[in-house]
Amino acid sequence: MRDAHGARLAYGDEVVAHIVDQARDPDSGGRMIDNIITNSILPDLSRQVLARMVEGGAMEDVTITLKDGAFDYVFGAPTPAASDAAPKAKAAKPAAAKKKRSKAGEAKEGAEA
């Protein structure tokens, strides 16, 4: 989001807990989490980003929240109320900052997971 649109992407602990609650099947491992992000969050977020680009709406700050048990996306410039809640929200890490473990167990900087 930051590289493509100059927007800060954040999410709260409740979003992480909601994803974890939906991914309780031990046989699926991380595939279920990937599925939730790939098939729920990313398409919804993409549609809303495209709609705002067409409308010329603000995208300085994008926060993923929960509303009535579903993912919700709050766009715009940070407000004083949002700034107060910022310590609870986590900024998404850029892809380049992710670490990937090799078969030997060594952490590699800059590799995508």
List keywords for this structure.
113 residues, alpha+beta, four-stranded mixed beta sheet, two-stranded antiparallel sheet, 4 helices, elongated, disordered C terminus
Any overview of this molecule?
The protein is of the alpha+beta class. It has helices at residues 2-5, 13-22, 31-55, 80-85; strands spanning 8-12, 61-67, 70-76, 89-91, 99-101, 107-109. It has 4 helices and 6 strands. It is elongated. The protein starts with a helix and ends with a strand. The model is unreliable at 79-88 and 95-113 (pLDDT under 50).
Outline of the structure:
This protein has helices at residues 2-5, 13-22, 31-55, 80-85, and strands at residues 8-12, 61-67, 70-76, 89-91, 99-101, 107-109.
Structural class: alpha+beta
How do the SSEs run, as a string of H and E?
HEHHEEHEEE
Instruction: Give the number of DSSP strands.
Output: 6
Proportion of residues in extended strands = 15-25%
Helices and strands in order, then pairings?
Layout: H1 2-5, E1 8-12, H2 13-22, H3 31-55, E2 61-67, E3 70-76, H4 80-85, E4 89-91, E5 99-101, E6 107-109
